[in-house]
Structures are given as structure tokens and as C-alpha cells.
Amino acid sequence: MSGQGFSHQPVMADEVLKLLEPERGLWFLDGTVGGGGHAERILESNLAATLIGLDQDPDAIEAARARLARFGDRAMVMTGNFRDAAELLQEYKDVGLDGALLDLGVSSHQIDTMARGFSFRRGTPLNMRMGGTTGGWRTAADLLNTASEEELGKIFRDFGEERKWRGMSREIARRRQEKPLRTADDLVAAASTALWRPLSPRDKARLFQAIRIAVNDELEALKDGLESIARLLKTEGRLVVISYHSLEDRIVKETFREWSRECVCPPEMPVCTCRGRALGRRLTKKPMRPTEMEVASNPRSRSARLRGWIRA
What we know:
Layout: H1 13-20, E1 27-30, H2 37-45, E2 50-55, H3 58-68, E3 75-79, H4 85-88, E4 97-103, H5 108-112, H6 140-146, H7 149-158, H8 165-178, H9 184-195, H10 201-216, H11 218-230, E5 233-243, H12 246-259, E6 280-282, H13 292-297, E7 305-311
Parallel strand pairs: 1-2, 1-4, 2-3, 4-5
Antiparallel strand pairs: 5-7, 6-7
Helix pairs in contact: 7-8, 8-9, 11-12
């Protein structure tokens, strides 16, 4: 599968530019470059800027390179996970970043391409790897068929916020002894039995989200990535993040809040022994949300939450 036909409608692009202010800097990172939509807007906003795009999806890499080719050397697209940004951009650490963006959503291309396994349409294989169909880590099917009942239960409880997580993990463990789970239909059938009812679209979304998060280690990757990118920011450098569910948004919110506190010592400490200064300040105390007009034109933007932080 190539990047041909990889569509990318950037979510909250105007709001991203408002927080990022590309016109004031020279070096930017798009840590989830996708089809290059946000990157294109950043480069158009500052004709002197250089942007480094990262993505682990080979289809996205191909599409972004094609879309950004007109910018020449001002656009550099690399394969990699944003959690490793500090290592991947080692040669640029002395230059420093004026701004960085993370758009944590699953792309329309990934959802609509059946082989990628991100949707719950009938017959969809249980893949869900962000790095493509041939990545080196386990697929959703591998996870469901080999993880312990305890591990599966924790995934449904913590990542899917499912109250009947015990029954769901027990039913999957029972079924896989008879026949391995291979498609979305297998997972939906097991969950329906565990819940004693047909699954609603909302149920399916939570269930598949939980498995996808586990397959790609998304929440730990986000924590690592925020820390990694923060180390690359210049003074007054900005980090902007778009998240799409409460688990992601909570991590971003709490990280930005902790970085913006002068003292992070436990309350029982009589004397401050921590860094004693804020690393920066929040650009948004509450998340920005897409406009009604954007949601109407791009329904997948509905759950987007945008937050920003600036380094001191």
C-alpha cells in the first residue's frame, strides 16, 4: 500500500497557527506529519521557516513528502515515532525548535483502509499498528490471542473505561481456545456476548480504541514524546497538541500544568528542594475546540481538544 490517495484534512489548522505563531521562528517540528496538511500551513505562514516532519506510518511519509515537495529543503520528512524526537533530531539540538505540533488522531486514510484494521467494519483484520501492516510489533490479533486474561482486563478497564472488563476478557480468553480472533467481527461478537447486548457504535469505538492504545503503547509514547520534544524547544518555543479522547487530553493537561508550576515539591516538604521555577507557561488553561462549521465539514474533528504551552 502506497501513500497514493492519502487524504489529510488538518484539524483546527487556524487555531494551531494562532498558538504556534510560525511567523516568529525558523525551526519547527510536526511530530505526527500525516498527510502534511498542518505542515503545509506552517511553511506557507513563514517563507523562511524549515520544518521537520516525523511519522511512523510509511503511507503518511510518502504522502507528506509528495505534498511538501514544493518547499524543497525547507521540508524534511523522516520516519520515526515522536516519542524518540530528542534522539531522532540530535543534530538539531543546538539549533533548537521554535515550535512543535502533535496531532494525536488516527488519520482518515488509516480508518478507511481496511488492511490497516482501525475500523470495526465487517471483515476488517485486527491489525491496528500505526506503523503499517508489516511493523515489527504485535498486531491487535496477536494481543487478543496471546495476552493474559488479566492483561486484557486491564486494557479494557484502563483504556476503554469499560465497567464489565472482567467478563469481556474472560469471554475473549474462552473463545480463542476454540478459534483465534482474526477480524473485527470476532472481537465485536465476543464483546456482545460479554455485555449481553448488541454493541452500539459508541461501545465499538471505546473497545477498538482500548485495543489500539495497547497495540501502539500510545499513552506511554505520549508521555515520552512530550518530555522529548520539550528538551528540544528554545526559550519561547511553543508546543501545541491536539488530542481526541480524555485519556490523551488528561496527560497533556497535567504535563503542561506541572511544567508551569514554580514548585513541584510534595505539600509535606518544609523547604523547596525541586527546581524552584516554572519551566514555562500554559497558552491555554482550557482546551480549544473546533468550530461548528469545521465539525460540519469534517465530522471526525468533533472530539478534538487543542492545548498549547510555551517554554520560559
